[in-house]
């Protein structure tokens, strides 16, 4: 038994992240994921209007009037600010590990195998990226940048943590992200703090295989490769572009057959 959760925060005028969170959650359920799925959303209106077994929604007390960078920062912070609710649910159902997924991710096949094994933190390396980039480097010293220049940094959009140390990991991440701002980047993103935490931790790490989490709008452009991934993360486009791409991939993954049944139903 495992647990997965995501964050979906939108302005009142838009609903792109909520739509993507809906597709993510539905894809997890259709993959026969062995665990519950939690959605933490902005707004009073539920994302799912009918109850589904294993799916739970919680409204976040998001501040009014947020947009742009402020909206992004609010969403980043809730990844660890929901730790109490997430851990409570995980312990209640006996989940061994907790999986976090950004809302712009889609599950293409059952992910249970990724959560097997004796480790505390599972991470995703961003192949082709560098620690020198501002998304990762804020908390690093010059010496660390030189030493790490040949290693890919860690993406904070997908991670897994053993339930027994989940609170410890989230507390450490929050302390870095909400602590004194670094000189290198006074307004660092959550990903900078996540990389700092991962570099400092003494917990046992596992890097998910590159083909498990792929980035089709960012670097993994070949459909023949990313269609076989466990997760695809739609980095590299605006919310509308991401939602349209993920919708098409969701439908082709879970509703395609050679008879074109879904297409015929839509044509009736």
- Please give the domain count: 1
Share of β-strand residues: 15-25%
Q: How far from one another are the termini? A: 41 Å
Structural class: alpha/beta
Q: Please state how the strands of the largest beta sheet are arranged side by side.
A: 3-2-1-4-7-6-8
Q: Overall mean pLDDT score?
A: 94
Strand segment count: 10
Q: Give the CATH topology.
A: Spore Coat Polysaccharide Biosynthesis Protein SpsA, Chain A
| CATH C-level category | Alpha Beta
Sum this structure up briefly:
The mean pLDDT is 94.
Topology of helices and strands:
Blueprint: E1 2-8, H1 16-30, E2 35-41, E3 55-59, H2 68-81, H3 83-93, E4 97-101, E5 105-107, E6 121-125, H4 134-137, H5 142-148, E7 154-162, H6 163-177, H7 190-200, E8 205-207, E9 213-214, H8 223-226, E10 231-233, H9 239-254, H10 261-266
Parallel strand pairs: 1-2, 1-4, 2-3, 6-8, 9-10
Antiparallel strand pairs: 4-7, 5-10, 6-7
Helix pairs in contact: 1-9, 2-6, 3-6, 6-7
Describe the structure.
It is a single chain. With 268 residues, the chain is an alpha/beta fold. It has one domain (2-127, 155-266): Alpha-Beta Complex (Spore Coat Polysaccharide Biosynthesis Protein SpsA, Chain A). Helices cover 38% and strands 18% of the residues. The chain has ten helices and ten strands. It has helices at 16-30, 68-81, 83-93, 134-137, 142-148, 163-177, 190-200, 223-226, 239-254, 261-266; strands at 2-8, 35-41, 55-59, 97-101, 105-107, 121-125, 154-162, 205-207, 213-214, 231-233. It has a seven-stranded mixed β-sheet, with helices on both faces. Helix 8 (223-226) links the parallel strand 9 (213-214) and strand 10. Helix 2 packs antiparallel against helix 6. The longest helix has 16 residues, at 239-254. The chain is globular, with a radius of gyration of 18 Å. It starts with a strand and ends with a helix. The relative contact order is 0.15. The model has no long low-confidence stretch (mean pLDDT 94).
């Amino acid at each position: 038994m495992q647990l997965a959760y995501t964050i979906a925060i939108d302005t009142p005028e838009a609903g792109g992240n909520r739509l993507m969170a809906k597709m993510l959650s539905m894809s997890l359920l259709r993959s026969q994921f062995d665990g519950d799925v939690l959605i933490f959303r902005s707004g009073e209106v539920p994302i799912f209007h009918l109850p589904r077994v294993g799916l739970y929604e919680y409204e976040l007390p998001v501040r009014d009037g947020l947009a742009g960078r402020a909206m992004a920062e609010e969403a980043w912070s809730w990844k660890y600010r929901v730790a109490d609710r997430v851990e409570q649910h995980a312990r209640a159902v006996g989940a061994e590990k907790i999986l976090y997924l950004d809302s712009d991710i889609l599950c293409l096949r059952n992910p249970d195998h990724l959560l097997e094994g004796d480790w505390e933190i599972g991470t995703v390396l961003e192949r082709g990226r560098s620690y020198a980039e501002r998304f990762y480097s804020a908390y690093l010293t010059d010496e660390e940048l030189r030493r790490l220049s040949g290693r890919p940094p860690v993406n904070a959009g997908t991670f897994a943590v053993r339930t027994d140390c989940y609170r410890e990991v989230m507390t450490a991440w929050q302390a870095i992200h909400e602590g004194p701002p670094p000189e290198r980047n006074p307004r660092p993103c959550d990903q900078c703090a996540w990389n700092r935490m991962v570099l400092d931790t003494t917990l046992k790490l596992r890097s998910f295989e590159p083909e498990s989490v792929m980035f089709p709008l960012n670097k993994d452009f070949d459909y023949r490769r990313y269609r076989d991934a466990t997760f695809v993360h739609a980095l590299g486009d605006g919310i509308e572009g991401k939602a349209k791409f993920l919708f098409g991939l969701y439908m082709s993954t879970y509703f395609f057959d050679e008879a074109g049944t879904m297409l015929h139903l839509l044509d009736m």
